[in-house]
From TrEMBL:
Belongs to the short-chain dehydrogenases/reductases (SDR) family. SUPFAM superfamilies: NAD(P)-binding Rossmann-fold domains. Pfam families: adh_short_C2. This is Short-chain dehydrogenase reductase 3b. InterPro entries: NAD(P)-bd_dom_sf, SDR_fam.
Length: 259
C-alpha cells in the first residue's frame, strides 16, 4: 500500500459502480483516510462500502441534479471527517436516444445537462467553497469524455454536455488557483461500465469492445481501456504527483483523438 493520499478525505460521486467504484478502490489502496461514495444506487453503494471497509469508506445517497443534496453531501463530509481534500465529480449519464440536431428533444437535452453539466458545476461549487473556508489546497477532478474534444454523428446533447465540463474546469481552475485549489478533468474513451452496457443494450465481452471501439479507431493497438486505467489517471490528478497541474484535461483514450 502506498501513501499518495495519506490522511486525505475524498468524495466520489457516481461511486457505486464503473469508474467511480474503481477509483474508490484505487484511493483505498493509496492510503486515503476516508472515501465518501455518493450515488443514487444505494444497494450497490453499500456493497462497495462493505467491500472496502466502513473504517475507510462510507455511503451517502445523492442525486447531483439537486443542489441541496450536493451541498448537504459536502457539509456532512466536513462535519463527520473535519475536512475535504479531494472531490471526484464523476456522476454522469448518456443520452437515451441517438439525438441529432434535426431531431433534438429538449426534454432529454435538459435531463442530460442537469446531470452532466449542472450537477458537475454544483459539485465543484460546493467542494470549492468548503476547501476555501477550511484553507485546504484541494484537488477537484471531473469526469468528462473524449466527446468533449470531438463532435459526433449523433448524441448531440451528450457531446454538448461534455464540452460544458471542459469550460467549467478551465474557468474554475483560473478562479480557484488563488486559493491553491487545482481543478482538472479526465477524458476516457469507451470503457466497459454499466453505463456503456446500458447504452449498447447489452454487456459485451472485452473482445467485442475491442472490435467495436479500439481496433478500428484507436492508434494504440492490442489494448482495451478498463476502469482501472481511468482510476489511475484520477489518482495522479488527485495526488501531489500533479501538484503543478491545473486546468488540464487528461485524455485516456489509447490514441483515439490523435488518430
Amino acid at each position: 500500500m502506498s501513501n499518495k493520499l495519506g490522511g486525505k478525505v475524498a468524495i466520489i460521486t457516481g461511486g457505486a459502480s464503473g469508474i467511480g467504484e474503481a477509483t474508490a478502490r484505487c484511493f483505498a489502496v493509496h492510503g486515503v483516510r476516508m472515501i465518501v461514495i455518493a450515488d443514487i444506487q444505494d444497494e450497490l453503494g453499500q456493497k462497495v462500502v462493505e467491500s472496502i471497509g466502513s473504517h475507510k469508506c462510507s455511503y451517502m445517497h445523492c442525486d447531483v441534479t439537486d443542489e441541496d443534496l450536493v451541498k448537504n453531501l459536502v457539509q456532512t463530509t466536513v462535519q463527520n471527517h473535519g475536512r475535504l481534500d479531494i472531490m471526484f465529480s464523476n456522476a454522469g449519464n448518456m443520452s437515451k436516444s441517438a439525438q441529432t440536431i434535426l431531431e433534438l428533444d429538449f426534454a432529454e437535452f435538459d435531463r442530460i445537462f442537469a446531470i452532466n453539466a449542472r450537477g458537475m458545476a454544483a459539485c465543484v461549487k460546493h467542494a470549492a467553497r468548503a476547501m476555501v473556508e477550511l484553507k485546504i489546497r484541494g484537488s477537484i477532478v471531473c469526469t468528462t469524455s473524449v466527446a468533449a474534444s470531438s463532435g459526433g454523428e449523433r448524441d448531440t446533447d451528450y457531446y454538448m454536455s461534455k464540452h460544458a465540463v471542459i469550460g467549467l474546469v478551465r474557468s474554475a481552475s483560473k478562479q480557484l488557483g488563488v486559493h491553491g485549489i487545482r481543478v482538472n478533468s479526465v477524458s476516457p474513451y469507451a470503457v466497459q461500465t454499466p453505463l456503456l452496457n446500458r447504452h449498447l443494450g447489452k454487456e459485451p465481452e472485452e473482445a467485442e469492445v475491442a472490435e467495436l471501439f479500439y481496433e478500428p479507431y484507436a492508434s494504440l493497438k492490442g489494448v482495451v481501456l478498463k476502469t482501472k486505467h481511468v482510476a489511475d489517471a484520477v489518482l495522479f490528478l488527485a495526488s501531489h504527483d500533479s501538484e503543478l497541474i491545473t486546468g488540464h484535461d487528461l485524455v485516456v483514450d489509447a490514441g483515439f483523438l490523435g488518430k
